[in-house]
Amino acid sequence: MTTPLSVAVIGAGMAGRSHANGWRMATTMFDVEDLPPVRLAAVADANGPLADDAAKRYGYDKAVTSWEEIVDDPDIHVVSIVVGNDLHRPIAEALVKAGKHVLCEKPLAGTLEDGKAMADLEQDASVVTGVGFTYRRNPAMAAVSQHVTAGDLGPVTLFQGRYNCDYACDPGGALAWRYTGPKGSGALADIGAHLIDLAEFVNGPIASVAGGQLTISIAQRPKPLGFVVGHGAAPVSDETGEVTNEDTAAWTVRFANGSSGTFAVSRTAFGMPNGLAFDVYGLQGRASVDWHRPAEYLYDDALAPRSPAASAGSSPARTCPTSPAATRCRRPATVAGTPRCSPTSVAPSSTRSAVSRARSRPTRPSPTPTA
């Protein structure tokens, strides 16, 4: 294809810059024969200097301060919406009506009513729409999903998911828009949306939900004196305002395949910058992913060879490295009695397993006793 595809990003904050960079990198990540040239057309943000900086930083043609300018520009074909949740619906409706393709950042909307309206909008639209659930594109996440789909774990019995962050731990942090929505639009929507998507990507659709708890840990926050960008610090006033949505959410589910699930998410979990993790258990195996080690996943099944030291009825787990060329694991081979993962296809740069990397690290010396 030779006709350029012109893209724009509405929102120049933390996530908006990720979208801006993503469009810039698109032709380096995929086969260019299947992609048209990408024209980086515009970045829009009500904060003019922020829009200017993002446009210059990521190579976009211009910066504007009104999302309506993006809607009205006939030369723009695809738009990322990366602004506050309550603005998703009106912007998406205007863009779709103007015949533009839309990628909306999660959560889809700030309320159930808006989310349903946006889903209905897509049904009769002639454009492509999508939501920015990015973690399912990670090779480790995809590999675990493949294990479950292939039946490697046997019938799934339990999914345990958690997403803990610490960006809201400081009571002095500014009362940004993300703290003032309705219940369910806090940690549940902000980070829980990713976890819910991963759960269904790995273990199939959720059939029912029960036992939800939404908790506010910091009830008042100082009002900002200006724009607040992402989770960053910002000047605040002496006046405070009420936090109206949850800092922590926990709930249980039943999946359509009959398995149970437990979920917990928090934006006030000290020491956890981005603590996304899950475990899925079956009758014949288990698999786990921890985003602190995003290039690996833990996999264990009933066919893994047992070592003499293994306890009765258990089998040794192995850590599987992942890369674009290695996202599935065969049954383990054994080296010196220790199971290791044998990828089906491994690029030359990724032939060392996580186990061998761990063995090559020097041991940390014991601390010297002090009086």
Automatic annotation (TrEMBL):
Biased composition (Low complexity): 306-317, 342-357
Region (Disordered): 306-371
The keyword Cytoplasm is annotated on this UniProt entry: no
Chain ranges of the Gfo/Idh/MocA-like oxidoreductase N-terminal domain: 6-133
Any Pfam family matching the protein: GFO_IDH_MocA
PANTHER family: BCDNA.GH03377
Protein name per UniProt: Dehydrogenase
Source species: Arsenicicoccus piscis
